[in-house]
Amino acid sequence: MNPTIHDVAKQANVSISTVSRVFNNPDSVGKEMRERVLQVIEELGYAPNPFASGLRDNRSMVIVAMIPDIRNSYYAEMLSGIEEVALSKRYNVIICNTIQNEERFLEYVKYFVKKKVDGLIFASTEITEFYKKNFDALNIPVVLASTEGRAWDLPSVRVDDVQASYDATTFLINNGHQEIGFISGPSHLLVPNVQRYEGYRKAMQDHQVPVSEQHVVYAEMTFDAGYEAMSRLYAKMPHLTAVYAASDAMAIGAMKFLHEQGLEVPRHVSVMGFDNLELSRMISPGLTTVAQNIYEIGKSAGELLFQGIENRDQDLQSVTIAHEIIVRGTVRNRRLKSDSER
Amino acid sequence: MNPTIHDVAKQANVSISTVSRVFNNPDSVGKEMRERVLQVIEELGYAPNPFASGLRDNRSMVIVAMIPDIRNSYYAEMLSGIEEVALSKRYNVIICNTIQNEERFLEYVKYFVKKKVDGLIFASTEITEFYKKNFDALNIPVVLASTEGRAWDLPSVRVDDVQASYDATTFLINNGHQEIGFISGPSHLLVPNVQRYEGYRKAMQDHQVPVSEQHVVYAEMTFDAGYEAMSRLYAKMPHLTAVYAASDAMAIGAMKFLHEQGLEVPRHVSVMGFDNLELSRMISPGLTTVAQNIYEIGKSAGELLFQGIENRDQDLQSVTIAHEIIVRGTVRNRRLKSDSER
DNA sequence: CAGCGCTCAGAAAACGTTTTCTTGCTGAGA
DNA sequence: TCTCAGCAAGAAAACGTTTTCTGAGCGCTG
């Protein structure tokens, strides 16, 4: 078995209180004693038993990351950022695939109450009163990642979706496109779809490009749904020159549909995505898209959470992460004559 | 604060021993008492404090999944399977991005000794004596996922790489290909690369197709490395009609190179991958590949681990997961005349 | 020189379980 | 009727910390 604080105390000929103090508040113990204890600790390879400390002061050194699906590389990337900062703080991360499922969520929450996790990063879905109530009951710091929290007074880390979407749309307009269709996420998922829709619409209007519900279709934010959504959009807008999809997965699904219709990207139709997933650069041509620095979102969320853990009554400030247009090969510049003649 | 076992005991007018027994060994307590206690438990929403139980019997109800990189969808998928069975056993999973880094590995291992995790699933790299020694020191059940363990007497869950690779190569041969290049993973990573190489070579030989080192290039198993490896392979084998890559990421990288060279897939060159990543079906044309049921690997590894946790001295039997050829659009059948005339 | 306060270290309580040991009671067999 | 076995429930110890309380020793001040 591992050495305990008693073993160290006996070996160093001090009391266990002294050993504990050496660990937690070294300045409060005299130099010679401290050094003797330190040496024995080293010698025996002593480390405090986390169960005992946990029992004593209800800290588990564990945080929880709640995400919809770890198989989605967006969340995997985010998790990677969270994990990085947790490791540096000597915390562990436990992951929860909520699968957008309230029952499963509850299952986990019930669990955390017992486990006394020290903090929670939530990246799953729209926050409803249901979630908010459960968070409150948990009574630990909560940080939202890539989802909205202002209405519920929860700190969040995310990109400015309105602005990012505005920039993406403007990019298409600046490349000479006017007939720009928009594949939105499902409208019932408020975040981030309202924001991305708003950014798209605002950009169109600001540049005097006509826009209406005729330009928009709604779908789940997946590859398959994007494929299917593109067929609907194409039926509504047979003359579109560009498609802007609210996620890369949808954009790539849309590209597959266009490809099957014999429409070349970007010669006949330009495509713009959102997310900058790893795979966006793997396809040919590479997908032009809006990059969220997802890793950074995870990292910031982690840092924010630890702020809250280390200083329980501090108010946490939401953070906005910068976005960036990544230009690859799926948008054609219609303003270049040579290009349009190709 | 949460109700304790004492609260329950007082409320139900029994001793705490009885309450504990109701939880852990219900049959040993009389019916009426049991029911009274059960009711109070329900009423108060009591649940045992895991620190206290952990302190008492050194069980954490936590298992660890060690993987190279959660951002790699292969491992994300595997993790998803692990997580599923852990949840059903009411265990938590903590993840460790080892990043193929021994120092980082040690950092984690040191941690687990303290945390007293109950089991470990290792999916990182080739097992060396270094790892094996650390596993032994941990003194908990260890299961290997998608890596080899026989030499070290560790149970593993994986596909039969030799057979799978044999099948993939045979598929290409049966489609009329003879000049088949092979993009292997780096030779220093023995598993699974020796096996896949062996399967390829064996299939070629069994079908009387000439094969030599001229047909093979080595690269890291990533998209970028696959791109670069394809350029080397193409230089060595300008007349190849098919490429078989030991991972989908490499295969897709290779496709990008071919595309840039003006070579169409599958018209000029056929491509076959290995893994069946999510993104393999997203590209156009869809990648023909060998499917590992990765989720199943994770799930089986989890189940095997829990066998070991629940029965410590049982010998765990390694498990082989079935593989399958997924036919999509990147392999042309050269035996069909109409096809070759297109 | 006496008394006061301050510093540093030890004693002990508390955290919430699980499980062994003990005890009291019931029922059966002699 | 007495004794012994068996069973059900309670008492108590143990797991390893952290922290508050206590007390000893010492230096400074009046």
Element order, helices and strands of chain A? HHHHEHEHEHEEHEHEHEHEEHEEH
- Strand line-up across the major sheet of chain A: 2-1-3-4-5-11
Chain-averaged pLDDT of chain A: 90
Q: Point out poorly predicted stretches of chain A.
A: none
Query: How many beta-strand elements of chain A?
Result: 12
CATH homologous superfamily heading of the largest domain in chain A: Response regulator
- Reading off the top of the CATH hierarchy, the class of the largest domain in chain A is best stated as Alpha Beta
Structural class of chain A: alpha/beta
- How many helix segments of chain A? 13
CA-to-CA gap between the ends of chain A?
75 Å
Largest interface comes to:
A-B, 50 and 49 residues
The helix fraction of chain A, in percent, is: 40-55%
